[in-house]
């Protein structure tokens, strides 16, 4: 059963930003808004996604930036400006109660535009979409009682820019995830069946079952450790170590990353991988594009995973991934692949790069941008990593 909650954490996030920024002048807020374009131009690692190598920015965005005068209008503008990148990994550090839901963290449908049709390619387990009966292959016909094609076109028209590559699918996923403070109305169709209109709660209002950082199970196939969207939680390190103490010598260990959309940090990822190496091994390639733009000199390095004293497992390793394997979950998957693990379940979320936080000069609003390009040790961009299908 789903239970509805008041999203106090989101309200607190906005409140803390607003209070910290109250002393700033309208001109300083406007200067912060106008600085976002420069921030993107200098630091966003994927400008080559766009035809002219420059992030989309129409006259409407310029007008909105010039009109910013306070904390609320700055945050609203920043959200909209980052949306023009059509990048689920480019977000603000604060939000409103009615901000659009973050994808994939608070989405339950993965939608792609195929042959002019918006089709469900993945459904999140035990989510409102799942329990409502939506399945892979269903067509999304309407979102909030508007034909999906029109809703997507209106999304981009409202921003005043032409949809960038993958922009239609990006918008469909964002619109289907809905606003954080209200249900979504989706009309879907299975095959030749009659369309069904469903009211689904926002995932921000759905209480998930209480879980620890990891869940452990043993089957005839070996030991399975499921990471419960906790790759940014310091408690995960101790929980994973404790789970690994249950592994028998030579036993297959399966690491389930299908619920890691929130990303995390490399400390925990390297700690997990450290169980499966006996010497330093490369697991991920980084390229820092901002320095390359400033100096014309490329900067690239290989990150390694090192063994952990007293913690080592020699049995086979399997990894399970899916559309809700995101960011650090994807990094962990490509790293384990480099170590020889069998990775199954692609495609993953395909989130771009490693995020850096940029705090705007006057207001302190945090802008999160993919700043490093990330690749597998073989040189394949992480977002294009492929593995054994599910």
Fold and architecture overview:
Helix 2 packs parallel to helix 4 and helix 9 (266-273) runs parallel beside helix 11. The chain is 30% helix and 23% strand. The protein is built from eleven helices and 17 strands. The chain has helices at 8-21, 26-43, 59-67, 71-83, 128-131, 148-159, 167-177, 235-244, 266-273, 289-295, 328-338; strands at residues 91-92, 109-114, 117-123, 139-143, 146-147, 184-189, 196-200, 214-219, 222-227, 253-256, 281-288, 300-305, 317-320, 342-346, 354-359, 366-375, 388-389. Mean pLDDT is 93; it is low at 1-16. The protein has three domains: 8-92, no CATH class; 109-205, PDZ domain (Pdz3 Domain, Roll); 214-389, 2-enoyl-CoA Hydratase, Chain A, domain 1. The chain has a six-stranded mixed sheet, covered by helices on one side. The protein has 390 residues and is α+β, with helices and mostly antiparallel strands.
SS-based class: alpha+beta
Mean pLDDT, all residues: 93
Q: How many helices?
A: 11
Evaluate the radius of gyration. 22 Å
Distance between the termini: 28 Å
Strand order of the largest sheet: 8-9-10-13-14-17
Q: What is the 3D shape?
A: globular
**Quick one: how many beta strands?**
17
Strand content: 15-25%
Which superfamily, in CATH terms, is the homologous superfamily of the largest domain? 2-enoyl-CoA Hydratase, Chain A, domain 1
Question: What keyword list fits this structure?
Answer:
disordered N terminus; globular; 3 domains; Pdz3 Domain; 390 residues; 6-stranded mixed β-sheet; 2-enoyl-CoA Hydratase, Chain A, domain 1; alpha+beta
